[in-house]
Amino acid sequence: MKNNRKKNIRLGVNIDHVATLRNARKENFPSPVKAAELAIHSGADSITAHLREDRRHINDNDIKEISLNFPGKLNLEMAATEEMLAIAEKIKPFSCCIVPEKREEVTTEGGLDVINNHHKLKPMIKSLRDIGVRTTLFIDPDESHLEACYDLQIDCAEIHCGTLCRLHEKNDENFDFEFNKIKTFSKKLFSNGIEAHAGHGLNYETSKIISSVNEIEELNIGFFIIAESILHGLEKTIINLKESMIAGRLLKDE
Q1: How many distinct structural domains can be found in the chain?
Q2: Which residues neighbour 38 within 8 Å (Cβ) at sequence distance 6 or greater?
Q3: Residue 168 annotated as catalytic
Q4: What is the tens place of the pLDDT at every residue in 209-219?
Q5: Does residue 1 lie in a domain region?
Q6: What domain range is 76 assigned to?
Q7: Whole-number pLDDT of residue 1
Q8: Cα(190)–Cα(71) distance, integer angstroms
Q9: Is 50 among the residues known to form the active site?
Q10: Which pTM does this prediction carry?
Q11: Is 113 within 8 Å of 149 (Cβ atoms)?
């Protein structure tokens, strides 16, 4: 059945690259915690932070402080490791998004292989659910992974939009095909009780396009927001981005 009711769409602001800038000079500023405070004040619905195994940007104290200062707002991105599970069990963030991770990567390069990692993900997801943490997997819009997602009983799936954004930037003719993949994937998640989120590479234009998909309930955006805020300020960037999302939500979703 077609879902015609237009739902509100949320924005999660990823503050990883505030920490990247801080760490570039090994200083104690700019503060990711202060950035999180300003983001919430400017209209962000949640704060995303990726605690990498190599602590490349966000560190353990950042996670602790964000969790304490903004209860119910932290979306902790993490690899599927025992160390990260122990940290999540200790701080109990509002949600955890499990992502693939490689030490040599500049940024997350694609979604989790849910099928081949199913045996490792299942007990981890159960442990998080048992302590009341919402569970999300960062995945490509690949329908072969849907059954594994259903079996894992995750609350949400964040769709990797990197390919879509690169195609949009190049004005590539394959853009429509990729966008339709994301739309179809989102609708199948929704129809099976999994909340669809989207992220990676989104900017003003692509966030507006993605927001037109009514089944997608949340966008998580980081690098674009931090880069844009250097020139225009964090508050203005978040306000402008939310306006793009609302405009996209009003577009007709076929």
Answers
A1: 1
A2: 234, 235
A3: no
A4: 999 999 999 99
A5: no
A6: 10-249
A7: 43
A8: 27
A9: yes
A10: 0.94
A11: no
Distance CA 72, CA 159 (A): 22
Q: Assign residue 123 the CATH number of its domain.
A: 3.20.20.70
Tell me if 129 is assigned to some domain: yes
8 Å CB contact between 37 and 62: no
CB 224 within 8 A of CB 202: yes
Residue 215 annotated among the catalytic residues of the structure: no
Question: Which of 17, 57, 77, 101 is labelled catalytic?
Answer: 77
Structure tokens at 101: 């991770």
Q: Is 149 within a domain?
A: yes
Residue 138 parent element (H or E): strand 134-139
Residue 7 DSSP symbol: P
Q: Tokens 């119910």 belong to which residue? A: 72
Q: Which of 168, 200, 215, 218 is catalytic?
A: 200
Tokens of 250: 């009003």
Alpha helices in the chain (DSSP H): 16-24, 32-41, 60-69, 82-91, 118-130, 146-152, 162-169, 175-191, 204-211, 223-232, 234-249
183 with 214: CB under 8 angstroms?
no
Within-domain flag for 185: yes
Of the residues 17, 50, 168, 197, which is catalytic? 50
pLDDT tens by residue, 7-53:
799 999 999 999 999 999 999 999 999 999 999 999 999 999 999 99
**Tens of pLDDT along 73-131?**
999 999 999 999 999 999 999 999 999 987 665 566 789 999 999 999 999 999 999 99
For residues 244 and 10, what is the distance between their CA atoms, to the nearest angstrom?
12
Is the pLDDT confidence value at 175 over 70? yes
The amino acid present at 141, given as its one-letter code, is: P
DSSP assignment, residue 144? G
